[in-house]
Amino acid sequence: MQQVAVLGATGSIGLNTLDVIARHPETYQVFALSAHSNLTLLAKLAEQFRPRQLVVTDTSLDIRDFSQQIASIDTSIGIFQGPEALVDVASASDVDTVMAAIVGAAGLASSLAAAESGKKLLLANKESLVVAGELLMQAVRHSGATLLPIDSEHNAIFQCLPVDYSAGGIEQAGIAKILLTGSGGPFREWPIEELVKVTPEQACAHPNWDMGKKISVDSATMMNKGLEVIEACHLFGITTSQLEVVLHPQSIIHSMVSYVDGSVIAQLGQPDMRTPIAYGLSWPKRIDAGVEPLDFRQIAQLTFDTPDEQRYPCLKLAIEAFEAGGSAAAVLNAANEEAVSAFLANQIGFTQIAEVNEMALNSLENQFGLDIDGLIQQDLRAREFARSRIERIKQ
Ligand code: NDP
Ligand code: MG
Predict the structure, then answer these.
(1) Quick check: 34 and 25 in contact, CB under 8 A?
(2) 58-84 b/e with 16+ CB inside 10 Å = b?
(3) Residue 307 is assigned to a structural domain of this protein
(4) Which residues does the UniProt record annotate as the domain 1-deoxy-D-xylulose 5-phosphate reductoisomerase N-terminal (predicted)?
(5) Count H helices, E strands: the chain?
(6) Which of 36, 89, 264, 275 has the fewest C-beta atoms lying within 10 Å of its C-beta?
(7) CATH number of the domain encompassing residue 58
């Protein structure tokens, strides 16, 4: 039995993970579930999966009624509150596998704890790698943890790489380029001058994927692809010049690896996160994920294009931040989290997300060689800066 901790269980990736786990009760057991604020759903999941532990990360919530409700289900379920409890769960000796499915830099400490304690880490929380990619990869190497990417593109690349890839890196594996695909989001064909009018509802309605709100907005600005470029560079030990972003509106090819002999290997599938989640859970084997196979007769066409820098300024900002090194990516990520939540709260417009991000990236001093506490401090400074800009825009 694999004991799994699902961090961010009440979110889109968390629920998809539990859907796959429920199909294989003989192999996976839920050891722990975490939620930030959705106690109603957490109680429902606790009843269904009977974990040993529950974590509620929002410290402002009164959890007395919730605790009573859980006790009426099973008195032996432990309930913990606060973000530190995530770190304890991620490093608990009973846990084999940690699904890191929290949204934003809030997932960093628990991803790092899982990496440091040698777990099998299923990483959906790309922001961990964006903020502290070097430290996280170092922790994986030191502890011997197994890091499996869940982000669909990175999971696809992982599937297209040779099995001995990590031993010798990109050149020895005969790889010419990694081709990271992205749909371009819901506004790919809108006139650029209309983008100022985009509403949160429109931005959250992704044409192919059903995801949490933050990543949906990031997909619409293509900040998501920018974060994924950084994620890929850390995961696969490559530079930005060894990677190319390809627009592919149908989201059928989830990414590709181009080899020096002219071969291109692609991973195809439905836009359904249960496929990469199942691959992460069962790797190197494969298990049923409940996903219908592709019907090629139904796919009218697969098209490709180059992303337009003017339409997607956030993509360029992310690439610049990664190339600058130091704390630049952590700053950009923090500013973006603040800008996206302000956009979702109707405080700033859609195109002002990129403006806030650019100002933060250009205004905060880039710091090099920071440890994890230093990066977290820099994240906090960037949030403060972004919030002050957002306040000015609101007036
Ligand atoms: P959701 O918004 O659907 O879910 C987020 C989860 O994190 C919820 O369980 C939420 O709890 C919890 N959470 C929110 N804020 C905090 C916090 N401050 N501290 C601890 N937990 C918190 O997000 P997604 O599932 O869409 O995304 C999760 C991660 O996976 C992101 O990093 C995203 O980039 C990545 N990802 C997602 C994909 C997708 O298809 N959705 C695809 C590829 C990557 P609650 O709801 O109880 O408040
Ligand atoms: Mg992705």
Answers:
(1) no
(2) eeeeebeebbebbeeeeeebebbbebe
(3) no
(4) 4-133
(5) 16, 11
(6) 264
(7) 3.40.50.720
Token reading at 16: 């998809």
Give 193-252 pLDDT, tens digit per residue.
Answer: 999 999 999 999 988 888 999 999 999 999 999 999 999 999 999 999 999 999 999 999
Which residue matches tokens 């360029």? 316
* Domains in the chain, number: 3
With a Cβ cut-off of 6 Å, ligand 1 is lined by 8-14, 35-38, 57, 101-103, 106, 124-127, 151, 209, 211-215, 273
- Residues at the binding site for 1-deoxy-D-xylulose 5-phosphate are 126, 152-153, 183, 206, 219, 224-225, 228
- Helix 313-324 crosses helix 223-236 at what angle (to 10 degrees)? 30
Do residues 196 and 225 share a domain? Answer: yes
Atom of ligand 1 nearest to the CA of 14: 25
Residue 169: pLDDT band (50, 70, 90) is confident
| Residue matched to tokens 């050149």 | 171
Q: Token digits for 89?
A: 């769960």
Order of all β-strands in the sheet with 78-81: 78-81, 53-56, 28-35, 2-7, 97-100, 120-123, 146-149
| Global confidence as pTM | 0.98
Same domain, 265 and 162: yes
Q: Which residue CA neighbors atom 18 of ligand 1 most closely?
A: 106
DSSP code, position 104: S
Do 6 and 112 share a structural domain? yes
Cα 34 to ligand 1 centroid, rounded to whole Å: 11
User: In whole angstroms, what is the distance from residue 329 CA to residue 265 CA?
Assistant: 30
Strands (E), 140-215: 146-149, 175-182
